[in-house]
Specification:
Number of strands: 11
Distance between the termini: 66 Å
CATH architecture: 2-Layer Sandwich
Radius of gyration: 22 Å
CATH topology: Beta Polymerase, domain 2
Helix content: 10-25%
Structural class: alpha+beta
CATH class: Alpha Beta
Largest sheet: 5 strands, mixed
CATH superfamily: NADH:ubiquinone oxidoreductase Nqo5 subunit
Number of helices: 3
Shape: globular
Strand order of the largest sheet: 1-2-7-6-3
Amino acid sequence: MTTKLENLESAVRSVLGSREFELTSALGELTLVVGHDDYRSVMTALRDNPDTRFEELIDLCGVDYSTYGNDTWPGRRFAAVTHLLSISHNWRLRVRVFAPDDDMPLLPSVSDIWSSANWYEREAFDLFGILFDGHNDLRRILTDYGFIGHPFRKDFPVSGYVEMRYDAEQKRVVYQPVTIDPRENTPRIIREENYAK
């Protein structure tokens, strides 16, 4: 007797055919890693083929793999990770695609395949700097329009580059370079004999 996960794996392998991909199973979930060039055709096939029928894109997020765990990541730095849901078959699939260029991460947009990808791709652009080719409205969604950089990149400083404050004389919000000096906080050690005296 085959399990639902085995059925999903078999269906995905059948739908993708001779395309180059990597399919792994861990913790009861399947992860499909596809190449940049095949990304759109794979996503369209996963949606349209009755064997998989992923009607919904439930999440898309950017990931910065510049460091991973306690080590450095051996592959490409930026990826988009998508979670698909098939209501017809009641199964889920994670799809990962890496941007080929770390300096200017560019991936094809899937917002015309699933309209829900629109805001998710804008978020990945805003926070990670991942560009989505073919997206019809790629602009910042969470940070201010004048914001410099992408705050979820692992090389972005924790304190940021600028701070804003209200200037009473100018009667407007002004931006200025960060004035907070980075410091190391050492926690106080609580000793039992002096505790709560």
